[in-house]
Design goal:
50% of the residues lie in helices and 14% in strands. By secondary structure, it is α/β, with parallel strands linked by helices. Helix 1 packs across helix 9 (204-226). Bound molecules: adenosine monophosphate.
Length: 227
Amino acid sequence: MSGTELRIILLGCPGAGKGTQAKALCGRYGLSHVSTGDLFRAEAAAKSALGRKVEDFMKRGMLVPDEVVIEMVAAKLDSLAGGWLFDGFPRTLPQAQELDKVLRDSDKRIDLVLNLGLRPEEVISRMTGRRSCPGCGEVFNLKSRPPKAEGRCDKCGGTLVQREDDVEATVRKRLMVYEDLTQPLVAYYRTEGLFEEVDGSQPASEVTAQLAAIVDRVAASRSGAKG
Ligand code: AMP
């Protein structure tokens, strides 16, 4: 299935596998993948004014202020044609409310909110083992998906790096921030009847299969509703 005009939000604590699953679902359904974390990292690497503004928050494991995130996402939404999947946005109630408002103003709505559930202990072991390739963006994990040659990307041979915010103290801080500010979104979207959860501790391919089954069901009911 491709080019489906679905609008999906992927939630989950840091390290739950949002990036991996977002790529799989976007490839499968022809959706634009919008990762606010990736957008901020690109701005920081380019040393733009926005990048300089957000860099310090990211390094410390804190959230970028809502108004900065919302401005960037609103600009991005304007440039998106077709369906999309947000990965890492919204992360606070004000961001979720603002997204609802922006969508309502353009007569659009969210079709589905998917949550990847994972226990905090598992998050810490996963995230401190995460290594990524700055060249092609491929992500590895020393425990669950080690590169074939130590420190080298299987895909392009680049030198793998650990994200500055994946060191243990920062991971713990990010988890606390998640519990305080992002977890309330589960209740918010549950009451809207859009919410579905998958166990994020399963192998990535199994998680993808379960997420895809949910997306297929929602896509089918949507095209049925359209008649
Ligand atoms: P991620 O790659 O999604 O884990 O994001 C990395 C970092 O970017 C986060 O720890 C935050 O500092 C920042 N960030 C990404 N998305 C958001 C958001 N929606 N709201 C606030 N900060 C964000």
